[in-house]
Amino acid sequence: MLNPSLWWQPRSSFKISSGGKGSKVIRSPLYMRTTLLDRPQI
After folding, report:
1. Cβ 9 vs Cβ 3: under 8 Å
2. Which of 8, 12, 19, 35 has the most CB atoms lying inside 10 A of its own CB?
């Protein structure tokens, strides 16, 4: 389980963590929050 702080790292890091779907998530901050609550572990 990753620390919450890791999710808020630079876009490049987040893009890698989300498996290349980071660009879509970064565009919608609200969606990013939903993803964090929906699946806190990856």
Report:
1. no
2. 35
Nearest to 22 by CA among 13, 30, 37: 13
* pLDDT-derived band at 41, boundaries 50, 70, 90: low
Q: What pLDDT is attached to residue 36?
A: 57
- The span from the CA of 3 to the CA of 27, in Å, is 22
pTM passes above 0.70: no
Alpha-carbon distance of 9 to 11, in angstroms, equals 7
